[in-house]
Every structure is written in structure tokens, then in C-alpha cells.
Write a structure and sequence with these properties.
Blueprint lengths: L2 E4 L9 E7 L6 E2 L4 E6 L4 E5 L4 E6 L6 E3 L3 E6 L6 H6 L16 H4 L22 E4 L9 E7 L6 E2 L4 E6 L4 E5 L4 E6 L6 E3 L3 E6 L5 H9 L32 H10 L17 H6 L13 E5 L10 E5 L6 H16 L2 E9 L1 H11 L8 H15 L5 E3 L4 E3 L5 E3 L1 E3 L2 E3 L2 E2 L7 H16 L5 H4 L4 E5 L18 E15 L2 E15 L5 H16 L7
Helix pairs in contact: 8-9, 8-11
Length: 541
Amino acid sequence: MAEVILMPRLSDTMTEGVIAAWHKSVGEKVNKGDLLAEIETDKATMELESYQNGILLHIGTANGGKLQVNDLLAIIGKAGEDVTALIAANSGGASALTVNNKPTTDEAANKLEPVTSNQLPTTSIDASAMEEVVLMPRLSDTMTEGVIAAWVKNVGDTVKKGDVLAEIETDKATMELESYKNGKLLFQGAKAGEKILVNDLLAIIGEDGLDVNAIVASLKGGTKALTVEPQPSTEKAPAAPTFVNEGRIFASPLAKKVAAEKGIGLKYVKGTGDNGRITKRDIDNYTPTAAPLATPVTSTVPATSNQQPATAFGTVSFDEVPVSQMRKVIAKRLSESLFTAPHFYLTMSINMDAAIVARNKMNELAKSKISFNDMVLKATALSLLQHPKINSSWLGDKIRTNHHVNIGVAVAVDEGLLVPVVRFADGKSLSQINAEVKDFAQKAKDKKLQPSDWEGSTFTISNLGMFGIDEFTAIINPPDACILAVGGISQEPIVKNGAIVVGNIMKVTLSCDHRVVDGATGAAFLQTLKSLLEEPVRMLI
């Protein structure tokens, strides 16, 4: 049966997409994972991959054409298959054949979309069954997998439209996933605490009697439902250990987790999934051999020395914890930034004597105490207006110069770093900036930030001055062209009117992407920032 592919929602604010380029033509063979098209959204141009094998039988619009979210994008099926009825049924966007058809109201647009990804999920399950197949949604622009923090509904529970199904931990926050259909929860793709890749099967909602295993098999390429546990293999272990995998090893998150729990080295396990991918079933069927096992999570090893008395000894001890989703993405994005963008750094010392006096006077009247960070943010926003090249983004084949000033503020949390965005900061008062930053900081610690809170920055500030750091360099937060690292204020000897006096000095370092910003441009920006902070009254003009 032909597969219907609808235009997915690829960002939280996306309502339509533009076909930047088709990579497959009608009549051309398509394999699972092949690049179908490049879709330009309101955020970026993203690659869309096929979710199944077949022939591309229909495309919804040509290059340059626009499609609304849930409009018919493509149909993949067998050669010669008649898709006239499917085209007619899906004209206008809404269709019972969609994996998860969504309302298009503003309220619904703010909810989590169970199908939003750069892979196009489809299903050929009979529409008369009226089931809802829920795939793991992409809940942030950097998310590749999610962890089930908790199931709010259990298998067999009645589910109503709008009910919370589960809490999903992403690399940014823990978010609630709502149902878009009434029925019963018939299947859960993972248990609480387990990981699911974006677009992997998360849940099935339908009525009693629905053949869940058939749906699971059709979406997973034959993988059985998780309720059916494979039997351990009874084959005899080989006489000597053999490396089955070398170099990069492909395995599902669940397979990795189970392998770690069982102490099984993945390099000894033969994968039966697509392209040799190791699945949980492969781990369950693996028979241990004489091969070395994976390192246990905790180890305590006595340490002695032949040259020391027998009573002199200690223990080598350590703990290992799984890398969180947030930390994984921080590592990936910052590594890509540092090794892709040619960084250079400019450091400047700023005399904060006048800023200290101005802050003390403002705080005599302010309801909430203005911080030096608020003053730096405001001065930075005004400086960006004068130096738009600093407020730019590298987009590969073009440079975007932003006319609006959205400043990301790095906030440290236990799991890593979040960067909520103060939008249109140049037009906000110090009190407004203060209240917004405090609200973001609390939301970040409570894991209540939403995608709209951290998307869309044009420049970033990272301030470690409150931790006693004098100066440091920061890695650029893509797609921004620059980031400002702010150190603490310290008393240092300075020359003033020919005499050596004590001054309150703050050092700032601007990290620049040399593809966008040159040294003279960065220096001019810092000079403007310095002048505003050394004479704060200029920020009021």
C-alpha cells in the first residue's frame, strides 16, 4: 500500500514550508534513509529523509513551492500503483491517513507535536482502524533522542484528547506530551528511564481488538512488540573471542543500555538491524564468550607498591554516570562550533567606577535590584545596533545580518548550560531585562523552559564574574557570529590624571567567527561597549 507523507512541523513556530530542492524525482527509487528534499522553514533549511523503501509516485509541489503543515508532500509506493484516490483524499492537508493528524489552531501549535522531524514518518495502516501512531517528536532544534521521564498513562488506560501521555526529557528540558485522540493506550515504545530516538515508535492509541503487533512490525521493519521477549540463544559460544565490529558501532539506545547492564561489549555482538545496527534482540540473544566484557560502572581496586611498607595502601575508586541528553548536545554543538568556526578572541578592560555609582543610585529606587549583568546586557544590545556585523549569522552560502537584537543569556544548571533569549533587548529597560533574566534563570533550574524561550538568539553573553572568574574565553553559540565572555569586577591599580589610583576593572572577551567578523569590526564593537559602561548615562540617550 502506498505511503502518504505530509509536510511535517519542523519547528515550534512553523506553519508552512518551502521546497528548497527535491533530491528525488517522480518515478525514482527511494530507499529508507535517502534524502528526499530540502525544506526551508522559518528557522532553517532542513533535510528530509525517507522513512521507507519504494518508488516516489507523487510530489505535492515543485521546487520553490509552499506547503502548509500537514499538506500532502509526497507519496511513496510500488511502481504503477494508482494513487489518485490518495491525492484526492489528502487535498487540503487534513487526512485520516496521517500518522498523527493535528489541529491547526494557535493553541495546538503551542503543544508538542508527536511527529516533527527531519525524517518523514509514515504508515500504511488501514485508516478505518482510526488508530493514532505516536512517534518520538523532535522537541528542540538539537534533539536527536528523548528519555521517558515518566508515563502518565499506562497500557490499558483510557486516553482523552488533551490528556498528558508522558513526560519527555530532552536535551533542553522535561516536557509534557499530549494526546490528540480519544481511545485507549495500547502500546508503549519504552519504559520510564529508557531512551527513544526521534521518530521511533513511542505509543499507539486505539480501541480494544486492534492488532498492535502488526502496527509495530510495519513501523519497525519487523521488530516485535516490546511485550514479546525474545528467547535467549542456545547456541554454543565460539572457542575464541572474535571482534564482530570495528571502528564506529551502530546500536539502538536501548541495546546500548541493556548491553551496559549485562556487561556485554558491543564489538562482539553481530547486529541484525538495518546496516548491521545492533538491537535489543541482538543483545538478548548474545551468548557470552571468552571475550573481554565491558568495564563495570563502579570499580574498587587495591593499589600497593613493592617499594612501600605493606601497611601503606589506598584504593582506586570512581563513579560513572550516563551522559545526560543535555550534556550530549552541549558536547556535540560546541565541538562542531569550535572545530568548524574559525574563532579569534579580543579582550578589553573596562573601568566600572561610573557603572557602580549609577547602579547604586538606580537601586535606591528600583523595586528589584539591578545587576551588573543587566547593565552589560543593555549596553551590549545598544552596541549591536551600531555594529550590525557583530549581530550576524553564518549560514553556509550566505551571511544573515540581523536588524533585531535577541541576546541569549547563558544559564548554568546541574545538567549543563541553557541559553534563554531576551528578545528585542535594545528596546527594554534595565528593570524589564532584570525581571526577564531572573524569570528565565528560575525556569531553567526548574526545567520549565520551552523551545520558544531558547530559540532565535542573534548574540550570546556568558557571565562568570559572579563565580570569581577574572576573564575567560567562550565558544560561539551557533548560528551566532559572536559571544561575549564577561569576567568579574576586581580592584586594580590604574593611572588616572597622571596618578596611580585604585580602579574597578572588568575584563570582557569577544569570541568572533572569522568567517563573518574581522578583527577591526570586533574591536570597534568593544570600544562602543566600553564607552557605554564607563558612562552609563549614555545608555539613556
